[in-house]
Amino acid sequence: MLRVIDLRKRYVRHLLGGRVEEVLRGVDLEVDAGECLVVTGPSGSGKSTLLRCIYRQALPDSGSILLGPPGDSIDLAAASEREVLERRRTTVGLVTQFLDVVPRVGAADLVAQAGCSAQEARRLLDRVGLPGDLHDVPPATFSGGQRQLLNLARALARPRPLLLLDEATASLDPSRRHAVLRMLEEKKHAGTALLAVFHDVPTAAGVVDRVVTMREGRIAA
Amino acid sequence: MTSILEVVDVSVRYGVGCERCAPADGPARCPVCGSVWACRGLSFDVDSGDVMGIVGESGSGKSTALACANLDLVPLSGRVRLLGEDVTGIGGARRRELRAEALGIVCQTPAQGLDLDLTAGGNVVSRMLAAGARGYEALRRRASELVQATELPLERMDAVTSTFSGGMQQRVQVARALATRPPILLLDEPTSGLDVSVQVRLLDLLRRIQLETQVAMLVVSHDLGVIRMLADRLLVMRQGRIVERGLTDQLLNDPRHPYTQLLVSSQLS
Q: Which ranges of chain A would DSSP assign to H, the alpha helix?
């Protein structure tokens, strides 16, 4: 479903006198449909930049990001802006702990906007564990965990064959974390490919298939 | 798919120009003759459902780019195409027709975009009349639809717009621009001069309308916050040139040009 080949990314900080940060130094990885690959590693090792490059919130300097079955894939590293927007709508979802939605629209409407009916939106919010009295509340006042639940529900609003999870359960209490991991496991069994960044790999959960560690911009093991 | 708006290699010069003008990477103002190159080799296109933003400091050429799109200005060189038709330098009846039917504009100040001596309904209806619509009942019905869609109080529809607040006047501009259901809306600093809470309501309104109607938008603003809320794709302009382009969230997360980095780091929040 996803094949990343020799991906390289450096940030040049012009406001800091042209300071160069080599964040990805040739990353290769592959995630199949129905598989969950977890990337772990110390802070600053490039995990989030990797996900951002795949979602094209950052533009890689070189390498390829092949999305889709072999022979019918698109290289997200070189795809046009419109192609990327289209893939975000239909194929790849990103879940972070940040709020990147209009903060004055009710939570259920935000989920519906991501691609499902109003009824389905409420059902999803119930399932991820956002209390019912918050369904119509705009997320500006949500806690970090509640924002995460909303982002997750948005990513699940329509079937997307690839989900990118950036510390997607970091701010959740243990029971919600468990519920979310179970949902992700279900998605995986239904064929969704998952690429997840975790600081602490959820060992108890059956969702994880493989774990790789990043160090200084490379896959170490 | 045919683009709604296509701007191809457009250059605009204010002033007479000379041989030394606009070297490829020089300043926008010619040191010899004093001419200003407001756009230099500008190219972009907007498709159905697209929201394209243009950001840049004052004098970067973003409003000139919008003026070319609105057929207010004939570029020195390059082409402008609207719905596949080459409209560069077009005039007369066809230009009036296109501006009435194919383009809607929301100007920076209400005085530019509205007749403040007319009522809200009158401003909306006059645009429909310009596009050839007739029939009192139908015009009135459409005007009240738009007044409601833009969240203006219906009872103020027959009040003169000079008595409206700034935020309400901008809503009348939006209603007027949408009156003929144009495929593209041009927005020139639509929220500047409004207080923050009114800005936010107007942006929410524009976003809702975009989601519901899928109207294409070209939004010019110096405010990255406005662009972030509205635009999927973004052009960063400086001294008449596009210095960086990309997905809005990409440019905000991973600005690469020194000027874009400065813009992103200068955001208040």
A: 47-55, 81-90, 107-113, 118-128, 144-155, 174-189
The CA R_g of chain B, rounded to the nearest whole Å, is 19
- Tell me the C-alpha to C-alpha distance, in Å, between residue A190 and each of A35, A150, A159: 10, 21, 10
How far B68 CA sits from the closest chain A CA (Å)?
A: 24
Check CB contact under 8 Å for A59 and B232. no
With beta carbons less than 8 A apart as the criterion, state whether A186 and A12 touch.
Answer: no
- Residue of B141, B153, B46 lying closest to B103 (CA atoms): B46
Q: Is pLDDT of B16 > 70? A: yes
Q: What would the mean pLDDT of A200-212 be, rounded to a whole number?
A: 79
Residues present in chain B in total: 269
CB contact, 8 Å: B253 with chain A? yes
User: To 10 degrees, what angle do helices B166-178 and B196-213 make?
Assistant: 10
- Residues A139-173 pLDDT 10s: 988 888 888 899 999 999 999 999 999 988 888 88
CA distance B224 to A206: 43
Q: What is the DSSP letter of B77?
A: E
* C-alpha to C-alpha distance for B114 and B162, rounded to whole angstroms: 10
Check CB contact of B151 with chain A, cutoff 8 Å. no
- State the pairing for strand pair A218-219/B77-82: unpaired
Helix (H, G, I), strand (E, B) or coil at B81: strand
| DSSP state at residue B29 | B
Q: CA-based angle A74:A76:A80, to the nearest 5?
A: 95
Interatomic CA distance for residues B57 and B188, integer angstroms: 13
Arithmetic mean of pLDDT, A31-52: 94
In chain B, what residues touch A88 (CB-CB under 8 Å)?
none
% of chain B at pLDDT higher than 70: 99
Q: What's the gap in Å between the CA of A107 and the closest CA on chain B? A: 15
Q: How many CB pairs under 8 A join A and B?
A: 45
Do B249 and A100 make contact, defined as CB atoms within 8 angstroms?
A: yes
The B residues from 180 to 209 touching A (CB cutoff 8 Å) are 200, 204, 207
Query: Is residue B43 within 8 angstroms of chain A, CB to CB?
Result: no
Neighbours of B233 (CB within 10 A): 22
**How large is the greatest C-alpha to C-alpha distance in chain A, in angstroms?**
52
How far apart are the CA of A22 and the nearest CA of chain B, in angstroms? 14
**pLDDT tens-digit profile of A108-129?**
999 998 889 999 999 999 999 9
ipTM: 0.89
Token pair belonging to B202? 């107007």
CA B134 from chain centre, in angstroms, equals 27
Reply yes or no on whether the pLDDT at B1 is more than 70.
no
